[in-house]
Amino acid sequence: MRNPDLHTGAENLLLECGGLKAGDRLLVLCEDPSLGYYDADLCQAVVDCARQHGIETSIQTIPFDPMGGALPDGLIASMKSADRTLFLSRTGDQIRFDAGMSDIRPIMSYVVDASMLASGFGRADYFGFVALKDAVNALMATATRTQVTCPLGTDFSGPGAAYPKAGASDVSVARFPMSVFAPVPAQGFSGTLIQDGFLVGTGSKFYEPYGCTLREPLAIHFKDNTLTGFSGHQMDVHCATMHYEAVGKMFDLDPMTMHSWHAGIHPGCAYPAPAYENYERWSGSAFGNPRLLHFHTCGDYAPGEISLNVLDPTIRVDGVAVWDKGVLRPETIPGGVEILDRHPSIKAVFDAPELQVGQGSNGRLSAK
User: Fold this and answer.
1) Cα–Cα distance between 148 and 360 in angstroms, integer?
2) What are the residue ranges in the chain where pLDDT is below 70?
3) What is the pLDDT at residue 103?
4) What does the longest C-alpha to C-alpha distance in the chain come to?
5) Domains of the chain
């Protein structure tokens, strides 16, 4: 591996996140690069690094099921026989809330190409961001009032995060990089969010059409776990209504449900291409940037089937802007400054945050 940054990113994935060492067995499950989601160079970089460290590595290309069917028994058996399994496939994202994966604990990679792995997103210390996520979870759980606004007019509020008594809800798959805090249940929150550009899926299932284009910013009103209506351009209201109804009918669920929301915590996460060029890839890899906050809707479970996205949120926790127009301020999080001091690679991405998150030429998340 000639690129030292790429090698550092691969080590962060394998040795830090994966906890792998010489003699361990790694199973890499790859999606066919011809599908246009994961680049072949990423798989090769990871495998090269693993073998350089004496990690016994096997690679398997697995079929991608857009509807996210159950994993074959034979594949699960192979995963159990390995020390760690790495998904370079959207299949890993589709099973992230599957409790049956908790004993296997596979790794899902949200870096989709070698350049992302070599960037600050891939290189910044994995466990440092786990610590930051835990600190944000604790802050959200102890809040008495949380308010979210954005430059386009989003305004909703509620109490602290009503996480389960066992603690903040989390996924059954290890995520690399760690780039979001635990979803905040929508219960107790109400208000309006402004969706610009498009409605898009959540990575749970890949249906057609996956994205629904909007002409103007659309106001989406909600209370607790229910979407109560849309307002804006007449055609956008019609489009959103029909899209939600169609997806609900497709999966036999109540479409007007709001499950939870959370925002990105990793300023190294960048998405340089316009979102409209590939909605699927954008929705699965851009969300970790603090400039984006997203909701899980259309289903009373995480992640739901339709994602609503807010650009440049301000999140005030008990009156303090922890996110300020898309900028995450670690000094407002108990223990945040100390985390950055212990991890210079994390401080580096906070000092020079990535700003590209899929905006079009007009600087907004508009379709074109």
Assistant:
1) 24
2) 1, 165-171, 367-368
3) 83
4) 61
5) 4-118 (3.40.50.2300), 126-163+174-351 (no CATH)
Amino acid identity for residue 91 in this structure: T
∠ CA 227-201-185, rounded to 5°: 45
From the number of C-beta atoms within 10 Å of its C-beta (0-12, 13-18, 19+), residue 256 rates as middle
**Per-residue pLDDT tens over the stretch 71-83:** 999 999 999 999 9
Q: Which two tokens stand for residue 47?
A: 């495998």
- What three-state secondary structure class fits 330? helix
Burial grade of 91 (CB within 10 A; 0-12, 13-18, 19 or more): buried
CB burial of 349-366 (b: ≥16 within 10 Å; e: otherwise) equals bbeebbeebbbbeeeebb
Q: CA 153 to CA 193: how far, in whole Å?
A: 7
Q: Residue 118 in contact with residue 124, Cβ under 8 Å?
A: no
The Cα 175–Cα 133 span in angstroms is: 12
DSSP 34: G
Per-residue confidence (pLDDT) for residue 236, from 0 to 100: 97
Hey, what amino acid is at 201? G
Q: In what order do the strands lie in the sheet with 84-88?
A: 56-61, 25-30, 84-88, 107-109, 174-176
Q: How confident is the model over 74-126, as pLDDT tens digits? A: 999 999 999 999 999 999 999 887 777 878 889 999 999 999 999 999 999 99
Peptide bond into 177 cis (omega under 30): yes
